[in-house]
Fold this sequence. Notes:
Layout: E1 9-15, H1 21-34, H2 41-58, E2 66-74, E3 79-86, H3 106-113, E4 116-120, E5 129-136
Antiparallel strand pairs: 1-2, 2-3, 3-5, 4-5
Amino acid sequence: MIPLDTRRLFRAEFPALADRAAAVRRMVAGHLRDWRLGEVADHVVLATNELFANAVEHGSSGPADTVTITVSLERFGRELRVEVADGSPVIPVVRAPEPTEESGRGLAIVEDLAGDWGTEPPDPGTGGKKVWFTLPLETTS
């Protein structure tokens, strides 16, 4: 576990292409390992992957669009926050798909894995939205 007073943040921009999902997963997992947060990596990587997939499928208008992933430690290292920003202003909604449907479970997965999740406006000067989730972290003294 990293010291509580250590600030960590990384941000990366990816083309809004489904085939970039593996690179997103590797990047997030690698940073969490570097931050000695491997114990939460599986949940964080899965939830991030779901938000990235939603951003590509529902938040982009084409392959020239980008998706920005930001991962940070908040509240003096007690919480991990992941933001996925895309170019669409449409707010995502948790669905209740039929058992036979092949998609529509991404936000339900995020809701199950995360401590909290939501949306917020984009950074100033940009369009779209951010979808975020947080995960509380165990602290060591």
